[in-house]
Amino acid sequence: MNKTTYLGRKPINRVGFGAMQLAGPGVFGPPHDPDAVRDVLKRAIELGVDHIDTAQYYGPDVVNDLIRDTLYPYPENLKLVTKVGGRRDEAGAWLPAQTPAELQEGVEDNLRSLRVERMDLVNLRLMEEGEAPAVPLAEQLGELEDLRHEGKLDLIGISSAGREAVEEALGLAQISEIQNSYSVIDRQDEPIVELCREREIAYVPFFPLGSAFTGGPAKLAQDPTISKIAEKHRATASQIALAWLLARYERMLLIPGTNSVAHLEENIAAIEVELDTGDLAELDTVQQVAGPHR
Fold first, then answer.
1. Could you tell me which residues come within 8 angstroms of residue 168 by beta carbon, excluding any fewer than 6 positions away?
2. Res 293: pLDDT
């Protein structure tokens, strides 16, 4: 299995780190133990992580501040990826922030808090607009293209997007990453993974172990097929789930998140698990769990 691939034209290790869980409960407020969180970030770099996925609205502000305070000045090869298009209210609710002005403010906030001049990639996170009129996708991506030409970001991605939105985005901008929910127990995004394969675009699954909101990680451990293959490889159920993703597509990039050094080390070690064709055929029979609504 290849341990490296490309994000756009950037060489990148296939297992990175998702920083969402570094905030407090509900991705809101500070963590209970900031020192433990800093230890996770330091250990990630020691283990060769060169891709951290974050967002200003994780906290909000909290996670980016922790990344900056712990890792700045950053290793030369570290890719910092963020997302814009959302915000939090005072109670922690997730709200859309998708007007061009809000997207510009989101990018600027990330640059300031992370103390960088340019983001390696910015994902446009599509949000449910409720009864409010949706901002046309062309206007949203057009704003990110303008910011790219200004030198404030290198690459553009799209997140939480259905097939129709992905195809529209591909016609509007050069998309370098698609980030959606996808795992061995939630394959609703299979058509978009195939589209990425056709276009040689990086695919980054969030909830790579299944959604914690629907009991995904626990269901992995309870599945008899996953458990049997884990025992065969002397691995954990989570490592088998991550290895399955890596075997699915050569430009699949993983960003499993954790606030535990032990879990971080377990996740990074999944790159060493080599599933054979028999393993993959058996994993195709694993029972599916409904993923989150987009």
1. 137
2. 47
Say whether 166 sits in a helix, a strand or coil: helix
- In the chain, % helix, strand, coil (3-state, to 5) comes to 45, 20, 35
So what's the pLDDT on residue 270? 98
Q: State the residue range of the domain holding 58.
A: 12-214+251-259
The CATH number of whichever domain residue 26 belongs to comes to 3.20.20.100
Tell me if 290 is assigned to some domain.
no
Catalytic residues: 58
Closest Cα partner for 171 from 145, 197, 203?
145
Element spanning 191, H or E: helix 190-199
In a domain, 276, yes or no: no
Sign of the alpha-carbon dihedral angle for 165, 168, 172, 175: positive
Residue 203 lies in a domain: yes
Token representation of residue 35: 């020192």
In angstroms, rounded to a whole number, what is the distance separating the alpha carbons of residues 154 and 254?
Answer: 20
3-class SS of residue 263: helix
User: What is the reported pLDDT for 217?
Assistant: 84
Residue 291 has a pLDDT of 59
Within 10 Å of residue 93's Cβ, how many Cβ atoms?
Answer: 10
The answer to whether residues 246 and 271 touch, using CB atoms and an 8 Å cutoff, is: yes
| CB-count exposure of residue 165 (10 Å: 0-12, 13-18, 19+) | middle
Q: Residues 6 or more apart from 233 whose CB is under 8 A from it?
A: 239, 240, 273, 274, 275, 279
- Three-class DSSP labels, 46-99: HCCCCEEECCCCCECCHHHHHHHHHHCCCCCCCEEEEEECEEECCCCCEEECCC
Residues of the chain with pLDDT under 50: 131, 293-294
pLDDT of residue 129: 55
Residue 62 maps to a domain: yes
